[in-house]
Design a protein that fits this description.
The chain has a three-stranded antiparallel sheet, with no helix packed on it. A three-stranded antiparallel sheet has the order 8-9-10. Strands 1-2 form a two-stranded antiparallel ribbon. It is mostly helical. β6 and β7 form a beta hairpin. It has a domain of about 120 residues: Alpha/alpha barrel (Glycosyltransferase), CATH 1.50.10.10. InterPro entries: 6-hairpin_glycosidase_sf, 6hp_glycosidase-like_sf, Glyco_hydro_8. It comes from Mesorhizobium erdmanii. It catalyses: Endohydrolysis of (1->4)-beta-D-glucosidic linkages in cellulose, lichenin and cereal beta-D-glucans. This is cellulase.
Length: about 350
């Protein structure tokens, strides 16, 4: 299936692929021992699962991937191995090498929906690949290669000249939905894609990164918000997908963080997140795509640090003091907070 001509024209100007970036943990970039202790005390179960405290205490592949990445950045191999052991034994239950997306402590069996979530698969692969190289662990590298191969085999869809990341292997492709294909650009973990390109040099990871950037530019033109919807239909031109809130919200707020952590400073991509994402007080806006109006505001420091980091990267504006120290709140903003801080320490210390 090919996208109609209008979408191809919208996406005609391609973006350069992100260069390989060294992601070795160092004292300049690492999550501190104290920060990781605070994080794991609140979100890491002794069995090795990351608990989503705002979502009925479930665990999901996204959280396991974030846990691997943060414990790697903290240099804590013991906690990394616990998280990977739980992920491997409890969530890698599909027959295609990908992770089931949700593990629920309140249900038996704990996994009732075996569909995957591609952002979780990317994050897990990324964490394994980084740790495997840094800690000289060929077992981790081999697992990363295996998941990357499974994702390339069943998690992507080529549409016209675009390589798309399906949010899940089932339910989002052109053949699955009337408005399909449907994508979620926050599932593109841009910082992970050069790492996967090193793992699988013959894989489509550079094309996937390029497609994501092109789609981001196009998706910002879907309404008055000048920001991307969380869920996007690509049946014709990019548009908010059916059956999802037509808003820029909790998903899409992490897109600029992934871009920045990938080393991207393209003003075309980033500036809307500095100017349109926060309100005058720096709170993050959940935005109606059609009207551009604010639906509600997110005041957690883990959300507010993202547009602040964008402004830092683009203009050198300092990040407010209240966002420069970490205190855990809920799982998701706390995770984003640590990822933003760890990047700023190494690459933009002048902003802290």
């Amino acid at each position: 299936m090919r996208l109609r001509g209008r979408l191809i024209l919208v996406l005609a100007a391609g973006m350069l692929a992100v260069p390989w970036l060294s992601q070795q943990a160092s004292s300049a970039e690492a999550v501190t021992t104290a920060e990781w202790a605070l994080y794991k005390d609140k979100f890491l179960d002794p069995a090795g699962r990351i608990i989503d405290t705002a979502n009925e205490g479930i665990s999901h592949s996204e959280g396991q991937g974030y846990g691997l990445l943060l414990s790697y950045l903290a240099g804590n191999q013991g906690d990394f191995d616990r998280i990977w052991a739980f992920t491997r034994t409890e969530m890698m239950v599909r027959d295609d090498g990908l992770a089931a997306w949700k593990w629920d402590p309140a249900t038996v069996p704990h996994i009732s929906d075996t569909n995957n979530a591609s952002d979780g698969d990317l994050l897990i692969t990324y964490g394994l690949a980084l740790a495997g190289t840094a800690w000289h662990r060929p077992d981790l590298t081999a697992s990363a290669k295996s998941i990357a191969a499974a994702l390339a085999d069943g998690g992507l869809e080529t549409v016209g000249d675009l390589v798309l990341l399906k949010p899940g292997k089932s339910g989002f492709a052109a053949a699955d939905r009337k408005d399909g294909p449907v994508v979620n650009l926050s599932y593109w973990v841009f910082e992970a894609l050069p790492v996967l390109a090193q793992l699988m040099p013959d894989g489509p990871w550079t094309q996937l990164a390029d497609s994501g950037r092109r789609l981001l530019v196009a998706s910002m033109k879907t309404g008055q918000a000048s920001l991307p919807p969380d869920w996007i239909s690509l049946k014709t031109v990019p548009a908010p997908a059916d059956g999802f809130p037509k808003e820029f919200s909790y998903n899409a707020i992490r897109i600029p963080l992934y871009l920045i952590r990938a080393g991207d400073s393209d003003r075309t991509l980033l500036e809307p997140f500095a100017t349109r994402m926060p309100d005058a007080a720096g709170q993050v806006r959940v935005v109606d795509i059609a009207t551009g109006k604010t639906r509600h505001l997110l005041a957690d420091a883990g959300y507010r640090i993202i547009p602040a980091l964008v402004s830092c990267v683009l203009s050198g504006a300092p990040i407010d003091k209240d966002m420069q120290s970490f205190q855990p709140t809920d799982y998701y903003p706390s995770t984003l907070h640590l990822l933003a801080l760890s990047y700023a320490r190494r690459h933009h210390p002048e902003c802290l």
